[in-house]
Amino acid sequence: MSSNNSAQFNLFYLHPKMMQELHVQREEYRNRIAVSNELYQIDNLEYEMMNWFDYWHTKEDITKTLDFADLLQQCGFFPAVSLLGKPFWFC
Predict the structure, then answer these.
(1) Other CB atoms within 10 A of residue 68 CB
(2) Cα–Cα distances in Å, from 24 out to 44, 51, 57, 87?
(3) 49 half-sphere exposure, CB direction, 13 A CA radius
(4) How far apart are CA 91 and CA 84, in angstroms?
(5) What are the two backbone dihedrals, phi and then psi, of residue 29, each rounded to the nearest 5 degrees?
(6) What is the predicted pLDDT for the residue at 6?
(7) What is the pTM of this model?
(8) Cα 26 from Cα 64, distance rounded (Å)
(9) pLDDT in tens, 31-51
(10) Residues 6+ apart with CB under 8 A from 91
């Protein structure tokens, strides 16, 4: 897989449900985000993505209750995440 494809594929890890279902660890997440950040070069992306990870990773099982409306409410706190999430979540 090319680095551009990897960077784009890694955006699926933005969704909290994907983080929990795939049991992504913090360092693995950081490495995936670094690949995406090389391509997109958004200010504060890595910092906000790690905060996003910490925020959602500490929640109880969200796989049954999380929908797009829930994510929309949270996007305002993470502008860089929102910028990347727009194509997927319409934030």
Answers:
(1) 11
(2) 21, 14, 9, 22
(3) 28
(4) 9
(5) -60, -45
(6) 83
(7) 0.69
(8) 22
(9) 888 888 888 888 888 898 898
(10) 71, 72, 75, 82, 85
* Residue position matching structure tokens 């913090």: 26
Mean pLDDT score of the chain: 76
- For 43, the token pair is 């200010």
- Provide the H-helix boundaries in 10-91: 16-21, 26-40, 45-57, 68-75, 79-89
**Residue 90: pLDDT above 60?**
no
Question: For residues 25 and 20, which has the higher predicted lDDT (pLDDT)?
Answer: 25
What's the CA gap between 60 and 90, in Å, rounded? 24
